[in-house]
Amino acid sequence: MRKSLFHNQDQMMTGKERVDHLFEALCYRRPVRLREAAKILGVSEMTVRRDIAASTGRLVCLGGHVFRGPLTFNATSTTSLKQTTVSETLRSVVKHLTDGETVFIDSGEPLAMLARQISGEISLTVVCHSIDVANALRQKPNVRIVLLGGHYAHNSATFFSDESIAVLRNLRINTAFISASGFDEVRGAFCNHFLDAAVKRIAITSSFKSHLVVNAGKCGKVDPIWFARFHDFASIITDSGAVDLRHER
Asked: What is the pLDDT of residues 179-201, one digit of tens each?
C-alpha cells in the first residue's frame, strides 16, 4: 500500500521524525518537490533542507526535489529489491526513446544498466566509447552501434582519441545520457579525468537534450574536473527516481 506523506500537524515532529517520515513515504512514491514536502510537514523549506543535511545521506535534495538516499548501482552488492527499483527507473527513462533517434551513452555501470534496458524492438543509432555499453547493446538487432575508438583506458573500460573526439563533435545527437563521479546543483557535474570531461562536454553540446545519470550518493561530491552546469541537463536520473529539470527553470 502506498504511504501518505500527510501527518497529524497538531503534533510537532522532531527533525529525526521528519526525516524518518519522508524516507518511509519516499519508498512508496517518486521524489517529492521540496516546497511540497515543506508544506506537508508544516515547516519551512529551509528547515527541510537542514533536516536533509543532517540525515546522514538518507535523504538528498536535487533540482528542488527530495529523493531517498542512494541505492547502489553495483550489482554484486544490491538486494533484489534495490536492483528492481534501479531497473524500473532506467526502464521508464529509455521507453521515451523513439525509432530513428541517435543516442549517446556515456561510460559507467549506471549507463551500462541503462543500455540493457533498451528494447530490442526499437531502431536506434547508439554512439558510445565504453566496452561495457557496447556489450550491453550488441545482441539488440535493431540497434546500430557506433563505438568510438582509440587508446583503451583500462580504469574506465573506454576508448579515447583525437579522431573519435572529432567524430563526436560532428555528430548531431538527439539524446545524450551522461555520467558523473560527483554532482552539486550549485557547482555542477564533475569527473576525474580530462579526457572523460572532453567527451562529456562535446556530447552535451552536440545533443538536442542531455540527461545526467548518477548515483544519488554522488550529490555534494566535488571531484577535480568540472564539465557541466546543473541546467545543461534536461533531467537528472538517480537510483531513487528521475526529475525533469526543465520544470524547475
From this structure: 999 988 788 999 999 989 999 99
